[in-house]
UniProtKB/TrEMBL annotation, chain A:
Residue runs in coiled coils: none
Name under which the protein is recorded: YCII-related domain-containing protein
Family: Belongs to the YciI family.
InterPro entries from the UniProt entry: Dimeric_a/b-barrel (IPR011008), YCII (IPR005545)
UniProtKB/TrEMBL annotation, chain B:
GO BP term, pick one: DNA-templated transcription initiation
Protein's UniProt name: RNA polymerase sigma factor (Sigma-70 family)
Classification via PANTHER family: BLL6612 PROTEIN, BLL6612 PROTEIN-RELATED
Species name: Kutzneria buriramensis
Alphabetized GO MF terms: DNA binding; sigma factor activity
Amino acid sequence: MKYLLMIYMNDQTWVGLSEQERSALMAGHDELQRVTRESGELVDTNALGSPETSSVVRVRDGEPVVTDGPFLEAKEYLAGYYLMDCESRERALELAALIPDSRHCATEVWPVMISAGVDV
Amino acid sequence: MTVEGLLRELAPQVLGLLVRRHGQFDACEDAVQEALLAAATQWPVEGVPDSPRAWLLTVASRRLADAWRSESARRRREEAVFVAEVDDAEVPAQDDTLTLLFLCCHPALTPVSQVALTVRAVGGLTTAQVARAFLVPEATMAQRISRAKSRIKAAGARFSLPPEGERDERLRAVLHVLYLIFNEGYTATAGDQLLQGELTGEAIRLTRAVRGLLPADGEVAGLLALMLLTESRRAARSLPDGSLVPLAEQDRSLWDAAAIAEGVKLVSDALSTTRLGSFQLQAAIAAVHAEAPSAAETDWAEIAGLYGLLAQMAPNPVVTLNHAVAVAMVRGPEAGLAMLAELEGDDRVAEHHRVAAVRAHLLEMAGDVAGARESYLRAARLTLSMPEQRYLLAKADRVS
């Protein structure tokens, strides 16, 4: 069963981290990736650029209209994600707790629908 | 030489020979890739054959025959050609590396495809290695390479050196691709560090090969010098935890003295004997940095002058940005900031994090703490490199 672990961050929180906290955060990601790569759970992970670098695309009357992002205007934004293939929802929640950013802001855990199969 | 090194050396030779004999660059390139994969698994176990090149040629020829056989019965008559073992004595003395480079850097391709095809077909990297180095799934990279080959075929490209009149322009494209390969390895900050180091090594190896074939070309020498001088700082430019160390703070004892000596000699010879070009100028700038015993003793006036020449010869926003830094070091931060103002209206770069980073640096030099912090934070928000973002956020912290 695949789960998308979406890391939410708040700009104030991110900028406010000390250098040591930031180093610990990066080291935490390295370690999580090492462990889940070894266990075969990690499918994909990426950090995203900041909200300022995002764009929104809408198609109106057949014409694409591009505006500055993000689409949802909130203090929190999607900073990155992990796509994990795990045994259970409990394991997905456990992995979300290992994401270092969860200590500073929050991580959302969503089951991936298309991978669920017909018997679920 | 390691098995891998040997295979990379032989890859363009075997491919060149195969294409010469049978045409069909795309099919031959696939066959060579399969032969390289077979060798990479067999040789370490069974030992390197007495004539490795003949071995590769034989295997690649068989694969080509297999592919054709399964493709269509009408090609049956061609099978006979491949039954015999290939004799190493048949290998011609001429080096096809340059012809292959011209083909892989064909103007019908986008730069991304040129780069991918070049490292696989001429560099002898496997699709899996190319994919890992560029952080895309293997299937995506395989698709990209196969599309590139169809496009070359559709453009009617031939396996021969471009006509005399086009050769200079086509060579510039080849050098640009080699530089892109190098930069991908040098500036990429995510993914497999080891493989990215391999990309810079690969770019240097290929540029060296081109230089061997065109020793009188000043820009080839300039590019090789620029790569060597840049690569010489590798050990000093990041800390074990991945954070970046800017030039001014690097431990210069970690710089590779042999690479610097070779780069400086190359660029000095080229500058005094050949027509001036932008790679030579960039190498000359790198050489001024490399020869400064410390950051404080850098000859900024010389660097500002070289950037001035570069701005005339190949004007672009990145040159303006670097020129502004050099001018600020010579004439003070205000002069640099005035030059930055020119970039404000330039849509190509106004949103680029380096403009904000340089402005922050110059404001810091000028003593504008609040302005510097704001610009560092803006640069941190705009960059897509994690180590660079960490560096910029740390600068924002320290300035205030």
